[in-house]
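Supplementary Methods, section 5.1.

A reviewer requested that the exact input to the structure prediction be made available. We therefore reproduce it here, unchanged from the version used in the analyses.
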Amino acid sequence: MLWWKNRTRMEKWLLPILALLVVLIIIILAVFLKILADSQVCQTPECVRIAGKILASVDLTRNPCDDFEQFTCGNFLKNTHVPPNKDRISPIYMIDDKGNEQMRIVLEKPVEKSDTRPLKIVKSFYQTCLNASQNEIHVLDNFKKALKGIGGWPVLEGDNWKEETFNWTATIYEFIKLGMGHHFFFKFEVVRAKMSPSFGLSLSFAELKFFDSSSTSDYSNKANVQAYHDYMLKIAKAFGAEEAKASQQMRDVIDLDIAIKKLKERSVFDKTTTHTIRGLEKNFPTIPWLQYINTMLDSVTLMTYDSQIEVLYPQYLKGLEEIIKNTPKKTLANYMFWHGITKLVPLINKDLWNLYSTFWHGPESESLRWEQCVEQTRSQLYIPAQLLYARQFLKDGVKKSVDEIADYIRIQMIDNVQAADWLDEESRDGVIEKVKLMKVLTTHPLEFVSDEMVEKFYQNVTINPLDYLGSVQNVARNSRRITFSKLNNPGDDWVQPHAVFCNGIYDAGKNTIYISVCLLQDVYFDKNRPQYVNYGSMGALFGHELTHGFDDNGRMFNKDGDGLFVLRGAKTLAAYKEKAQCLIEQYSNITVPEVNLKLNGTKSLNENIADNGAARLAYLAYKKWVYEHYSEKPLPGLPYTPEQLFWISLATPFCEVATKAAFRSYSKSTYAPNRYRINVPIMNSGYFAKDFNCPLGSPMNPKRKCQLW
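The structure derived from this sequence is encoded token-by-token as follows.
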């Protein structure tokens, strides 16, 4: 107190004021520092929203260098439960569900006078599907009568089936007239003719569902074969077949399936072979080619003996003739009827739908009736249905923003190719030319469809409200006529054979990427959020589809979609195969612990190539965007840089909670489980290791890395 007493009156006044000033300065400094800190973080509503979503998904207690999937998806995995009618759930599936809900809203709007005819057809088709369950009691009987009218399915007819009247080509003609599947032994596709703006037909082997939905069914797996046989037997019995007789006949169908599958595997691809129809009948004389083709074309156009056909697998056709000649007629008929009804089975009644859904998608996959009807409407009438959806839900300015991302991905691919020392000059030039000419349709199908076109192509379609199955067959016949109409319209390429909904697809034959409007929302894109999020999600999607143009299948096609092998030199091909083998071995060494399933790196090679290419392309494209624009601010409440947030955004769409049945289904899939679609591309990226400072040799930064594109 003595010190205070010795102070002058002036000092006694000034000291409290000085103390107050110090406090004020501290407060002002703190506020200033907070403002300064806030100015370094993105505070927009969209940044706050996306930060909240990431915080709800990530597990901050996990080390990203140990297991990036567990780090990025940890809380999502803990707090998300698979719905009772599904076998898995992820942000990708959620956006598909949202798309279906949005489509339902549009389809359930009442028909209005102002609706175009195709729009009325779409709404009517959906309502007919919804009401089908009320009329399904007679559907199976009527369908069996239709089958009987074209000779009958031997497994149902028993001793009444007349072998002497059976002719396999004549039976196919009847399938065509009924609007049923008919590509049992080979298929024709409309393709752009070589060195011409017009269209022609190509002839290849058929791709049928066999054990699973992929073209790489493992027929050496006895469990797969037995499960498939059991499924066939259940369907045959539901149609009224006797189990004892049906069992062996269905086994004979499987044997024929396997024989044809083996023939495909040893047949050599050759897109340089072109035959006139006269030449086809000379070289493969057991098939009446002119009659077959003109019956298939259904009077849309007529071909002559001088018409040209591209034959992709001539060796296959020669072997097929021998198989057909040496196979009993009853087995041929059972094979054709089985594959002819496969896609129609779920449309007949609820019991058959459940059998179909359980086998192909797992026991947990039962869906609601409206979900089934939305799926059927958007697949059967995909052009008018998706046009309706796109016009309802595409937001202003989105296409321009998405197209810019696609352009940066394209440019980055060219940069990567130019820097790839394993490519010879001819191959490098071919790849670059193909990338430059690759079409990217980011709002499929809006880019190439007009109301007048849709009106024209659906003018003859009728929907019978009391006959859903018949309506499906009517629509199928019309869809086939739409496809073949391109043969009469040189340069008219608007009709695309892709029912793309909430998906992206690369078509090697057209060198085109299709991205549906449904994907331009939620986890994949928002024009108001930082680009590191958009490039991690939408940029990676573009990168994935673009890389498919140069996977083990895409590399066989040049810029025009012709099978002229974009990679040519012997050293280049050897280097490609070595890099691909690295990926094959890397994925094949993974075991899925939930079901003790060892991954097949050969079967999933193309998707793995695309996933790994996507991560690298999207990251470097984003860095290029930053260099040409500006550095972005990180998200609030998250201690991560924009680069780290890119990687989190890359992984987030693939966070997945799955049942054991879903994990087992990956044995039939060309995709690796989502966990490895996240982690393996991350493991192969030195950029990720640098951004997260992962020590060399840590799980996410192994010493041996695989890189192709």
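The CA atoms of residues 401 and 623 lie 17 Å apart. These observations are discussed further in the main text.
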